[in-house]
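Technical annex, item 7. During the second reporting period the consortium partners agreed on a shared format for inverse folding records so that results from different sites could be compared directly. Each record opens with the tokenized structure and is followed by the designed sequence. A conforming record, contributed by the partner at site C, is shown below for reference.
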């Protein structure tokens, strides 16, 4: 069979995000934010995947497989690098066209994004006052010299390259970081006449006020051009056991911060002498390392574009209260009587926070165990765990400090929790702990939460995920075994209802797929339905392909990279991808199992790293009511004919009434 390359398949996914920005059925300002999401995704791709290809190519590794790919396809690393660079450039050009179209439509709706040349006198006065009071205290202009290296450029910052032309025929160069923060946003709303909304980039206020920054230099003219450097995000970890984990993590983070730039993105109006000067300082001299762009960069900031007009935004979907959980009542008492399934962001994440809060003050609760991977910047989860420790509970936290781009925050949270008397575990060397698991132990019984998404109240508002509460004694026993293992590796452990990678998950799913193959060969009905973020593991793909050729019906919803390429003989496999206002993050598997459905939710994708190199946890759902809810969720999403695409990014249009699955799911849960 033929496999899709993971990197190219991922770029297809980001192309679907760009389609949302182009879709005129999407509210106008939400389309602008989709451009921000696309840009954020593309930046991470360059820092991780493209950087890895560059690194691999530099050491002349002749393997055809990029390090981060489960499946490499038919290209060599060098060939793939050419393809990827071409696709990245094409997407950026498309981004620029769509951005220009959206700006025109915004103007038709009375919203104008202006630069410093288009300001009225009143707006100029406003901007200069804003510069003096808000921006200037945050600026650190750096003068560039020919014989010294370029000052350190942050990876997630955009800069203005300033050129001063003197009367002696010489040029002076400087760079200024654009100081974006919560108190100094990238977009500033200006005073304007009634009926108009005028917005300016922070960059352009600085351009307007260049004379206030460099007044002491004599120059004939002064100009500024935006640029940014994207660095290799590779994280190297010091194995020196004489140093503490925090010391080694900080050293690794410092190396990443100073990682080799892999791409310079610059304003195409930047003078050639300035571009040559900066690119030489960054040791980026080849054309493929330099990308000409528009006037503005770090466009991921568009995700935070101000909300200006309700009619140009998505209709707000207020997270629902789970009907089983009443306000001001005990969640633990409800879980005593039944299992509860939540589906964020349709259900409020406050139920999970309240679950922890109740455990933190319940006199009968003795111990709280939890695994943490990515957390909110001001985490209510962390605050609640600290509160539990202050109330005399034993709190054991397994926090993964190697969560990419969250390492620094997780180290800080680790130190904070340890100071508050919480037992913090940093996992098993060489194996990331990615599962979403909570165990609460009372004197009389235990409670477990198994989820597919992070314990992060911010992302839970936009990421679609499942979470199951249960007091089932068998599952409680399984969770106890897992936390015992995490604390006392290499203790052996066994589980019955929780499936765990890298120890049992692959084997159990393989056996279930093989069972479907056997059933169809015996003339019985057989199907496999799955929902993933990524499907890239070669072994699982080959097995699914084998099942389809045997006659098993296979339906897959894969949001991002999918290396399973459907061929002419794969008539039993159908794959769709859904990109909409919420990010599809939940994972689930449904097996027909000879009429006795086996249904799982899990933290793992079908990726080699998830199945073989990470601690992941899934759960076999046995509650019939919850099994039916999960089947309903899958069926609603499978019938999406508004936001579903095939692997070639063609919209799936069926001859029935429109079904936009995320809105349908909200209605579904509202009616339960």
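Designed sequence (site C submission):
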């Amino acid at each position: 069979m033929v496999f899709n390359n993971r990197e190219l398949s991922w770029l297809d996914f980001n192309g679907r995000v760009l389609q949302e920005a182009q879709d005129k059925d999407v509210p106008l300002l939400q389309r602008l934010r989709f451009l921000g999401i696309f840009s954020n995704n593309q930046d991470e791709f360059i820092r991780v995947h493209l950087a890895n290809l560059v690194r691999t190519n530099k050491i002349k590794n002749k393997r055809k497989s990029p390090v981060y790919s489960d499946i490499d396809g038919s290209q060599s690393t060098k060939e793939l690098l050419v393809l990827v660079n071409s696709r990245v450039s094409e997407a950026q050009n498309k981004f620029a066209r769509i951005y220009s179209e959206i700006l025109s439509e915004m103007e038709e709706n009375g919203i104008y994004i202006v630069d410093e040349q288009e300001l009225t006198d009143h707006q100029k006065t406003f901007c200069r006052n804003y510069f003096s009071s808000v921006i200037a205290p945050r600026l650190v202009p750096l003068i560039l010299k020919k014989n010294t290296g370029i000052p350190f450029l942050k990876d997630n910052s955009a800069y203005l390259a300033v050129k001063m032309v003197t009367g002696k025929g010489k040029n002076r160069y400087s760079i200024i970081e654009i100081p974006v923060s919560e108190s100094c946003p990238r977009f500033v709303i200006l005073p304007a006449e009634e009926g108009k909304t005028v917005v300016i980039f922070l960059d352009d206020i600085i351009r307007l006020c260049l004379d206030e920054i460099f007044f002491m230099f004599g120059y004939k003219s002064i100009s500024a051009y935006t640029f940014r450097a994207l660095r290799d995000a590779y994280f190297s970890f010091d194995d020196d056991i004489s140093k503490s984990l925090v010391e080694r993590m900080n050293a690794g983070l410092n190396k990443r911060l100073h990682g080799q730039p892999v791409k310079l993105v610059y304003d195409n109006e930047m003078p050639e002498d300035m571009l040559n000067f900066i690119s030489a300082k960054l040791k980026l001299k080849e054309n493929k390392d330099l990308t000409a762009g528009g006037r503005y960069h770090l466009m991921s900031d568009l995700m935070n574009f101000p909300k200006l007009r309700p009619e140009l935004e998505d209709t707000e979907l207020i997270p629902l209260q789970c009907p089983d959980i009443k306000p001001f009542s005990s969640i633990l008492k409800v879980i005593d009587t039944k299992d509860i399934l939540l589906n964020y962001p349709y259900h409020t994440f406050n139920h999970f926070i309240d679950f922890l809060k109740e455990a933190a003050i319940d006199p009968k609760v003795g111990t709280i165990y939890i695994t943490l991977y990515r957390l909110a910047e001001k985490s209510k989860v962390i605050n609640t765990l600290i509160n539990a420790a202050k109330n005399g509970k034993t709190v054991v936290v397994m926090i993964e400090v190697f969560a990419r781009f969250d390492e620094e925050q997780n180290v800080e949270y680790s130190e904070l929790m340890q100071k508050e008397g919480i037992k913090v575990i940093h996992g098993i060397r060489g194996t990331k702990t990615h599962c979403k698991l909570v165990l609460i132990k009372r004197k009389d019984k235990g409670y477990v939460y198994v989820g597919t998404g992070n314990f992060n109240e911010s992302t839970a508002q936009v990421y679609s995920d499942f979470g199951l509460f249960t007091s089932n004694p068998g599952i409680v026993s399984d969770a106890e075994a897992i936390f015992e293992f995490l604390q006392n590796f290499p203790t052996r452990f066994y589980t019955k209802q929780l499936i765990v990678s890298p120890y049992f998950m692959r084997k159990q799913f393989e056996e279930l797929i093989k069972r479907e193959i056997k059933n169809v060969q015996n003339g019985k009905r057989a199907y496999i339905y799955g929902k993933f973020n990524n499907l890239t593991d070669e072994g699982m793909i080959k097995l699914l392909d084998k099942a389809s050729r045997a006659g098993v019906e296979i339906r897959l919803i894969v949001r991002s990279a999918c290396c399973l390429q459907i061929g002419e003989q794969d008539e039993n496999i159908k794959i769709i991808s859904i990109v909409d206002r919420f990010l599809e993050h939940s994972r689930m598997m449904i097996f027909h199992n000879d009429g006795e459905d086996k249904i799982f939710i899990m933290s793992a994708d079908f990726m080699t790293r998830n199945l073989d190199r990470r601690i992941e946890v899934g759960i076999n759902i046995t509650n019939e009511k919850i099994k039916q809810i999960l089947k309903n969720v899958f069926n609603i999403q499978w019938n999406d004919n508004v936001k579903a695409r095939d692997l070639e990014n063609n919209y799936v249009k069926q001859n029935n009434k429109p079904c936009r699955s995320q809105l349908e799911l909200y209605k579904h849960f509202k009616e339960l």
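The chain has 18 helices and 26 strands. The longest helix spans residues 77-108. All partners now use this format for quarterly exchanges.
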